[in-house]
Amino acid sequence: MDPNRLGFFRRFLKFNEVPVSTSDSQSEMQAEALIRHLLKEARTKEAWDVPLLETRFVVVDTETTGFNPNTDVLIAIGAIEMIGDQIVPARTYHSLIRPEPERMIPPVVVKLTGIRNEDVATAAELSKVLHEFLDFAKDAVLVMHHSSHDVRFLNAALWLKSRTHLTHRVIDTFDVAKWLRPSLNQYGLDELLATYQIPVEGRHTALGDARMTGQLWKLLIHESIEKGVSTLGDLYEQIVLSKR
Description:
Elements: H1 3-12, H2 26-42, E1 56-64, E2 74-83, E3 86-96, H3 107-113, H4 117-121, H5 126-137, E4 141-144, H6 147-162, E5 170-172, H7 173-180, H8 189-195, H9 206-226, H10 232-242
Parallel strand pairs: 1-4, 4-5
Antiparallel strand pairs: 1-2, 2-3
């Protein structure tokens, strides 16, 4: 890819860091080192010119106690792996997360997600989940729907535990769908699942939403290729141009 175009996209994809304090204990320092190592590894692969059908994707969804990463926290992460347009059935990740800092899950979130305070009280610690998730994702391109929400919360958690943030490339299926089908009135996940006739299973659970977003992404890949897009760099260029 042209270095000028690559530089533009790198600037375009930067996300704000969320400054939160970290622990200085030995175990926390070890966890921080592991997380930093995994994030460094995520930067090593140049994916801009790899064909979409050969690219490794990890489709991600999170559940949180609310919408503000300064006051709310992660309570679940779900992810599936795809190679190009093919979902890898055996490659999934899901974990509930013990809220850190400690938070009560609002009743509206309990009703929506089915995750109760007693469920997360004995769930895995945040450092462990971040390490497992990053080890699962490795250097994949991350795919999310309304990615700003998930990225902000993942960055807040990473900043809390390791004073770092995601280095992965991210594709937002909202943006791709809006570029491909500009005449649609709404681009929420529910509306797109209906438009693309994708069965709704496990809605508002991290793994269920990741699986449905993966099905959506598979169809969006096919439509993108039909419009002449073959690589990740091509796709980002079209998305950026469509926003002008």
